[in-house]
Amino acid sequence: MTPLRRSRKTARAFAVASVLTLLFATAAFAATPPAPSEPIPRNATVLAATLVRTSADLRAAIERWTPKTKPAPAEVALYALYQQRIYRLLTRDADLAQQTVPRLPPALRRLSSDFLRAHRELYRLTPPIAARAIKVGPAPPAGILLGYYREAERRFRVPWNVLAAVNFVESKFGKLRSASAAGAQGPMQFLPATWRRYGLGGDVHDPHDAILGAANYLHASGAPSRLRHALHAYNPSGAYVDAVLLYARQIRADLTTFYALYSWQVFVKTRSGDRRVTGPGLP
Hints:
Mean pLDDT: 91
Number of helices: 12
Number of domains: 2
Order of helices and strands: HHHHHHHHHHHHEE
Radius of gyration: 20 Å
Strand order of the largest sheet: 1-2
Low-confidence stretches: 1-6, 24-29
CATH class of the largest domain: Mainly Alpha
Largest sheet: 2 strands, antiparallel
Number of strands: 2
Shape: globular
CATH topology of the largest domain: Lysozyme
CATH architecture of the largest domain: Orthogonal Bundle
Strand content: under 5%
Distance between the termini: 63 Å
Structural class: mainly alpha
């Protein structure tokens, strides 16, 4: 007797059930956040379960983080770093990603697909940076930044989640302090001439002034009605525009995603490979 073939829908449901079974079986071991160098599973089923559990633990830690006008607690930083390292692995290993992402529950599958696509787009655009040129510092508190984005949206009608995505892509919310290869500066990465025209007389390195200046520039370039056009004026790359909008879509869908991305660390591309320069476990 020939065994029946599973339909794609049945196979997908079976994969999700397997992930959830493994998740529940290992939940007892998730009482403490992962160490900064915690190994990442290379088996797709185990990795999918690990990403589900890590994302759930990160969400719970973010909910416990009060008030969000204070720095993120250590547990948030550790869960966020582990989640970020998983996505970086999946970005580098396309085969592993193709096996892992379909095993995720639908909402996390959509978010992960957007994250991986955005990260691949941006990585291709990013030139290596000399180690001696790397400058970093703490980001302003997430709750404070959220207030700046919303103020800018009220004033210039640029969606707050788009401003947050630009801030994330350009400088990891102000953690990366280095000027770009083209000389762009500040948390929203303005060229001096552009800042003189759109910076409203503020300080390009001040987060509040930079976010308002970015909203002013995007509005003058067509936002919100021509948002893609405005973002292309900000950085003339289709890949850049796509990446910003992918992150912005997920931030808009779930505010927790903003706090998770805020808690990610800075990895820079150097001539000798990628290097993490902020976050727990560094000297």
